[in-house]
Amino acid sequence: MARRNGHDKLDRVAREGEVERRDGLARTSGARVMLAGLDWPDSDAWETRDSLDELARLAETAGGTVVGRTAQRREHPDPATFFGRGKVAELADARAGRGEPAAHPSEPYDLLVVDAALSPVQQRNLEQRIDGPVVDRPGLIIEIFGQRASTREARLQVELARLEYLLPRLSGAWSHLERQVGGIGARGGPGEKQIELDRRQVRDRVAAVKREIAQVRAHRARGRVARREGPPLVALVGYTNAGKSSLMNRLTGAGVTAEDKLFATLDPTTRRMGLPGGGYAVVSDTVGFIQNLPPQLIAAFRATLEELQEADLLLHVVDVAHPRASEQQRAVREILGELGLVDKPTLLVLNKCDLLSGPLGAASVAEADEEDAVVVSAVTSFGIGALRARIARRLGEAVREVEVDLPFSEGRLVALFRREGFLIHEEHRARGTRLHGHLPERLLPTFRRAGHVRELETNSAPGWR
Q1: Which residue(s) pair with 349 in the sheet?
Q2: What is the number of alpha carbons within 13 Å of residue 152 lying toward its C-beta?
Q3: Are 103 and 255 in contact (CB under 8 A)?
């Protein structure tokens, strides 16, 4: 009971520390949102516009209603308030319903959403200057993940990200107490004491959540070991809302949630997919990526993204109809690089070709030819057959049907074959054990060093039997 009370207290601390900033958007459907960003001198106007468009979709996904947007051209963000003094005054007037700012909001706004990662100081100062709540892009994404998390693992990972995001921002939670005792510089006042208590409690909860995630991670690892005795794993990756879940439904016939919303999928979903020639594979859908994904979320979801480490093939799904498809594709590759997956066998899938026509459609086909990609539509089924065939060929390159003769002393390799491959037949002979089945190509040198390996001529039907 004591632990539960402590957890309740921690939840209250988080609410009190971010009450308007979090509740105004994440818990109040229809909150009036103002979007604001910087227009960098070395960027084009359309880049700023498209970034704010994406931010608007994020705000709407979280339940907000965008009533205005604005951008300020600056070479560098102001270290104290991110925006310059004039833009901050303009935002304060717009929130209070005064003046006529360049953003032209249709009505006073409740919440300012900034298209960048703010420092705790910038966030706190902005809130004081506009007399209202401010959330930055990472905070908004964390809130959306919190809304979408449905399993214990996802909820733990989101809580970890939220706590680590909250920790450096706790000083603003009790500023009202500091002001009552003579200002922020006063030492030893109730505000300072409360901040230290809260920080200690948040750190304790972070440690507890990490322990719980480690337990879930161990359970998931055991499941992966068991699964490696079965079919190969194909994992879907891509920018959020690229159509991964719709593509998975088309490939597997599964009823995975597929919504026209950002981050519709958080928890990895696994389904079986038939391959040409009679084999089959397992397909896993994973959380979508986005530009400037908060580092707290990358770290927190690393356990879930470990699913990608075990994949025999990644399908990088791109919304080819999106005006920023190239930038989104690059953002996904950068995150894969951070996860150490840049060299993983990958097949590029250009989805949503049904939304293209004329020269754009022809360009997507040309791009597919150049990058060895497949053009598909998860909605109309166009290209799905070609995609299945391409997956089968790629898996066939990575998996070999073999007959292996091992001496009895190599029981370790017999266990490895059972664990990492798919065993069709095992026979004990006079001089050792003969194994027949499918092995990942990467393991063939290991078995050749210990015994005799004969590759069979039946690889035209790739996938595990």
Answers
A1: 317, 374
A2: 10
A3: no
Residues 386-400 pLDDT 10s:
999 899 888 875 667
Task: Answer for the pair 241, 260: CB distance below 8 angstroms, yes or no.
Answer: yes
**With 0-12 CB in 10 A as exposed, 13-18 as middle and 19+ as buried, what is 292?**
middle
Helix (H, G, I), strand (E, B) or coil at 40: coil
Please choose, from the candidates 142, 117, 139, 152, the residue with its C-alpha nearest in 3D space to the C-alpha of residue 303.
152
Please give the structure tokens belonging to residue 95: 């929130």
DSSP conformation letters of 301-337: THHHHHHHHT-SEEEEEEETTSTTHHHHHHHHHHHHH
Tokens matching residue 322:
């999106």
Q: What percent of the chain has pLDDT over 70?
A: 72
* Range list of H helices, 228-321: 244-252, 295-300, 302-309
Residue 402 zone, left/alpha/beta (φ > 0; ψ -120 to 50; rest):
beta
The identity of residue 136, as a single letter, is: D
The residues, ordered by sequence, that sit 6+ positions from 201 with a Cβ below 8 Å of its Cβ are 6, 9, 10, 13
Task: State the Cα–Cα distance between residues 377 and 18, nearest whole angstrom.
Answer: 42
* DSSP-based three-state secondary structure for 386: helix
Domains and CATH numbers, the chain: 2-148 (3.40.50.11060), 228-396 (3.40.50.300), 399-455 (3.30.70)
Question: Do the beta carbons of residue 420 and residue 440 sit within 8 Å?
Answer: yes
Among 67-71, 219-223, 308-312, the range scoring the smallest mean pLDDT is 219-223
Nearest to 265 by CA among 386, 95, 144: 144
Residues 30-38, mean pLDDT to the nearest whole number = 87
- Which tokens go with 183? 């200002």
Which tokens is 224 given? 């992966």
Torsion of CA 48, 51, 57, 58, to 10 degrees: -120
| pLDDT tens digits for range 79-103 | 999 999 999 999 999 998 876 654 5
In terms of Cβ atoms closer than 10 Å to its own Cβ (0-12, 13-18, 19+), residue 411 is: exposed
Beta-carbon contacts of 217 under 8 Å, excluding residues fewer than 6 positions away, are 303, 306
- What are the φ and ψ backbone dihedral angles of 315, each rounded to 5 degrees? -100, 110
Q: What is the mean pLDDT of residues 198-219?
A: 87
Helix or strand holding residue 346 (H, E)? strand 346-351
